[in-house]
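ok so dumb question maybe but i'm new to this and my supervisor (M.) told me to 'just get the structure for 2-isopropylmalate synthase' and walked off. so i did the thing. is this what she meant?? sequence i used:
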Amino acid sequence: MKNANKYQRGYFLPPTCEMKWMQKDYIDKAPIWCSVDLRDGNQSLIIPMSLEEKVEFFKLLVKVGFKEIEVGFPAASETEYTFLRTLIEQNLIPDDVTIQVLTQSREHIIKKTFEALKGAKSAVVHLYNSTSVAQREQVFKKSKEEIIEIAVSGAKLLNQYAAETDGNFKFEYSPESFTGTEMEFALDICNAVLDVWKPTPDNKVIINLPVTVSMSMPHVYANQVEFMCDNLKYRENVIVSLHPHNDRGCAVADSEMGLLAGADRIEGTLFGNGERTGNVDIITLGLNMYSHGVDPELDFSNLPEITELYERVTRMHVYERQPYSGQLVFAAFSGSHQDAIAKGMKWREEKNCDTWTVPYLPLDPKDVGRVYETDVIRINSQSGKGGIGYLMEQNFGYDLPPKMREDFGYAVKSVSDHLHKELMPDEVLGIFQKEYVNVNAPINLIDYHFNRNGDVKVDLTIEYNGETKSLHGKGNGRLDAVSNAIKENLSIQYTNLTYKEHALQEGSGAQAVAYVGITTPDGKTVWGAGIHDDIIAASIQALFSAINRMEKQG
Ligand SMILES: CC(=O)SCCNC(=O)CCNC(=O)[C@H](O)C(C)(C)COP(=O)(O)OP(=O)(O)OC[C@H]1O[C@@H](n2cnc3c(N)ncnc32)[C@H](O)[C@@H]1OP(=O)(O)O
Ligand SMILES: CC(C)C(=O)C(=O)O
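this is what came out, is it supposed to look like this??
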């Protein structure tokens, strides 16, 4: 990239960086969450949401558990205004939820905002103006004092309009483009606004420090937040809020480090929707906490339902690898991952574990509404015996012997490789049934009778290459007797018979499955399976399947 010198390190470190936040290694309690889906999320959509869509999304946010929801920029458009009026007039705002509205520091916009708020029991009125060097120079063409004056005059107007309007109003101020602002100036402008609002324990003020555009690595932002937290006036009556955007892909890290550095509140969106690369994804932040054992106080136990509604009303798509919510984020296609997951799951079951330690899965997919059967082990040509065996056991109840898993694993991989596609669980089962189960040519079982007098003796009726034959054999067990009858009468050779059986389903209609492995004269093991209501018949079928497969393979 030959133009790197076009860019400079355009971020502002505070005059002091104590980095106390570095001593902490996790976030020990949920912050105050504020959803800005209906404002920042909405203002960045190709087609902003309709009134009905906003109402539906608002209800979802309430259901998830947000207690603060920025519902829009009521002075922006008729839909925004009508949406707020609808929430108020149709009494859609639960008592424990506070709505928030955004306004520029311009009188006609503030006036319209308060008009839209009439009848609201409570609301946060969020005032912003840009404070960055770039915006001061290029957009506002104003000095620092003049920029402070925009903020202070707006703050005074909020006092005035709030006093003239019924309702319980809290105030929020954002030095927009905070990360492009000199920290001393950001502090001065916030303190000037706080001097107008004079927060008290009963009337706290929110100071929001947005990463309007991300310009630095997360530790720089953490130092900026720590500096503000340590130096803001009225700190005990100020709620420090963060609003990170994701331009450098660091919005989650910015938020987490900012919380360690002393912030109390997070503004973000579901799935990180928002301007450009988006806002911070609150689902990721919340579930990051959850997977550290901390309750995020938001309910993400049904992410598929949340995803469906979000995709429908925003017309956005949740990326397949979006943390926690993407279609593929719990999926393991590759053999060694599948093997470790299958063993980890078994370990959990056997040890009755309380804590979650399954390899490759940072969180139990069930906790967010995903299902092991279809979301975790997925089969393609990269898969292995561990995963394929696990799938057969979990989905269909077949507990194949370890060596047979390997054989079946290669059969399944080969089909996937040749078709060049993922195989669904039913297709995997289909391969098993077609390749291994009750294979009945050239030998087909017709009837059998055993009697025991010392050795076990068998009278066997079979079809061999279409011809009915009666065979007799004896051995030290039933399967041994059948095997000897075949070997002695049909000159078919093999050794080392391996056998396993189990019931297939619970209950009266239960079937049994038997698995048999035999070693061919050239040392290869060939497997077969038999399924029957009767376990003896299942085991003979399994043996015949193995022999028939050996004969076919030549
Ligand atoms: C980082 C963020 O996401 S901030 C939120 C951004 N969201 C939005 O802008 C969506 C909603 N906005 C809108 O619908 C419109 O911008 C409105 C209705 C608010 C205002 O519309 P208009 O006045 O027609 O246009 P516009 O926003 O371009 O106004 C720009 C003027 O406002 C000034 N301005 C911009 N922001 C602010 C502010 N926060 N406080 C005071 N003045 C401001 C600009 O300096 C400019 O002044 P000028 O007329 O002297 O050049
Ligand atoms: C209004 C402010 C908080 C904002 O949306 C931003 O800075 O991104």
